[in-house]
């Protein structure tokens, strides 16, 4: 199943300049695995060394925050999206 992935422009250096692209997977976990297979630099920006989503990052599957899900074994459907939001602070 093809899904759309969106990442903030601050992370485009990790995705070859892409901020919106498609990838193929059957489950949400498969989509995350494929995302990090294609763009391995994203993993360090999105997850801690222990596999937790970083505090300044929000990952959404459609309109659901991944933090609210018990597991990522959800079967993907046409039109699904994986969206990365990254909080930015500064002066």
TrEMBL record:
InterPro entries: Beta-grasp_dom_sf (IPR012675), Mopterin_synth/thiamin_S_b (IPR016155), Sulfur_Carrier/Prot_Modifier (IPR052045), ThiS/MoaD-like (IPR003749)
Highest taxon in the source lineage: Bacteria
Signal peptide annotation: none
PANTHER family reported for this sequence: SULFUR CARRIER PROTEIN CYSO (PTHR38031:SF1), SULFUR CARRIER PROTEIN SLR0821-RELATED (PTHR38031)
Name of protein: MoaD/ThiS family protein
């Amino acid at each position: 199943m093809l899904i759309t992935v969106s990442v903030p422009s601050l992370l485009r250096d990790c995705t070859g300049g892409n901020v919106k692209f498609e990838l193929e997977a059957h489950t949400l976990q498969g989509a995350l695995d494929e995302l990090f297979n294609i763009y391995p630099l994203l993993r360090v920006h999105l997850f801690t060394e222990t596999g937790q989503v970083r505090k300044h990052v929000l990952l959404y599957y459609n309109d659901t925050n991944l933090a609210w899900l018990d597991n990522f074994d959800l079967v993907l459907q046409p039109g699904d999206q994986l969206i990365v939001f990254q909080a930015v602070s500064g002066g």
